[in-house]
Design goal:
The chain is of the alpha/beta class. It is 42% helix and 14% strand. It has a five-stranded parallel β-sheet with strand order 7-6-5-8-9. Strands 2-1-3-4 form a four-stranded parallel β-sheet, with helices on both faces. Helix 1 packs across helix 5 and helix 3 crosses helix 4. The chain is globular, with a radius of gyration of 19 Å. The structure holds phosphoric acid mono(formamide)ester and norvaline (NVA). Norvaline binds next to helix 6.
């Protein structure tokens, strides 16, 4: 049985396979309209969500299955009355597939350890692999390829989306360039950088981490940013983080250093005036809603892949 815990564990071949399937699912949804007939997905949420919840739930419906939204604040698991292992062993008796959006990545690992059905990471503080599969699908659609393109990420480097983007990007031959403030609280984790250097050496891509935003974005084909206030970041850090990240804000001036046909991406939710300006996210280079749509198609491909493994 297979899970999707992080793209670190997925081979480049597996990622390519899922992206190919996502393309087919998007092109011919009717063909997949009954493939999850009588199957149920459990969706465990400890954090808020718009895209992840809606795309998983709609995806299951569109494939003939059903999804249950389960918020841990109303669950014995969330209140500490029941252990993760008891909850997941029980759920596995009713359910065909589990996805979970959690704070601690270790809790997801524990779920996968006790589940007798596939488990999907729907975001932890550590990583967000479903997002990145949709992102790679989107880049491939728009640019016709992945390998050899420069993807620049600006802003919070010590971030779930950043880490997953680095894994997925370097495994598929992208040149991944991270522009973030120096320091362990703001730049990508050293072990992720080290792993990604190895993946890049195999794929022909590369990885670069710099605190210089202009260097990071220079000649990029794709420019990506994410919230400076991820769901798990306490409100009291807000002022300090705005001051730290402001030099990395994706605005027209910074975008001018990317290639003229560069695409702009943000996994959303977005805050205009923070990680990017309104003119960038609402401008002609932005593909954020195509990116959001592909969550649906990419996740259908993930579900089908895990259910047939
Ligand atoms: N991008 C993303 O995962 O969005 P939600 O938090 O709305 O699910
Ligand atoms: N880094 C963000 C991603 C939201 C989809 C967060 O964790 O909140």
């Amino acid at each position: 049985m297979e899970h999707l815990i992080s793209l670190k564990e997925w081979s480049p071949a597996k990622i390519r396979e899922v992206l190919d399937l996502a393309k087919n699912v998007k092109a011919d949804p009717e063909k997949y309209s009954q493939v999850m007939n009588r199957k149920t997905l459990l969706m465990i949420f400890e954090k808020p969500s718009l895209r992840t919840r809606l795309s998983f739930e709609a995806g299951m419906t569109q494939m003939g299955g059903h999804a249950i939204y389960y918020n841990t604040s109303t669950s014995p698991m969330g209140s500490g009355k029941e252990t993760i292992s008891d909850s997941i062993k029980t759920a596995s008796r009713f359910i065909d597939l589990i996805m979970a959006r959690l704070f601690k990545h270790e809790d997801l690992l524990e779920m996968a350890q006790y589940a007798t059905v596939p488990v999907i990471n729907a975001l932890t503080d550590d990583s967000h692999p479903c997002q990145i599969l949709a992102d790679l699908q989107t880049i491939k659609e728009k640019k016709g390829r992945l390998a050899g393109l420069k993807l620049a990420y600006l802003g919070d480097g010590f971030n779930n989306v950043t880490h997953s983007l680095m894994f997925g990007g370097t495994k598929t031959g992208l040149h991944v360039s991270i522009g973030s403030p120096a320091g362990v609280d703001y730049s990508p984790r050293a072990d992720v950088v080290a792993d990604c250097c190895n993946y890049a050496a195999e794929s022909g891509g590369s990885v670069c981490v710099t605190d210089n935003p202009v260097e990071a974005i220079k000649d990029a084909d794709v420019v990506y940013t994410d919230s400076w206030m991820s769901y798990h970041i306490p409100k009291e850090q807000e002022d300090e983080r705005i001051a730290k990240f402001m030099p990395y804000q994706v605005n027209s001036e910074l975008m001018a250093h990317a290639k003229p046909d560069a695409l702009f991406m943000n996994c959303l939710p977005a805050n205009r005036g923070r990680e990017q300006t309104a003119e960038v996210i609402d401008g002609p280079q932005s593909i954020v809603f195509d990116e959001a749509e592909n969550r649906l198609h990419a996740q259908k491909a993930v579900i089908l892949t895990l259910c047939s493994a």
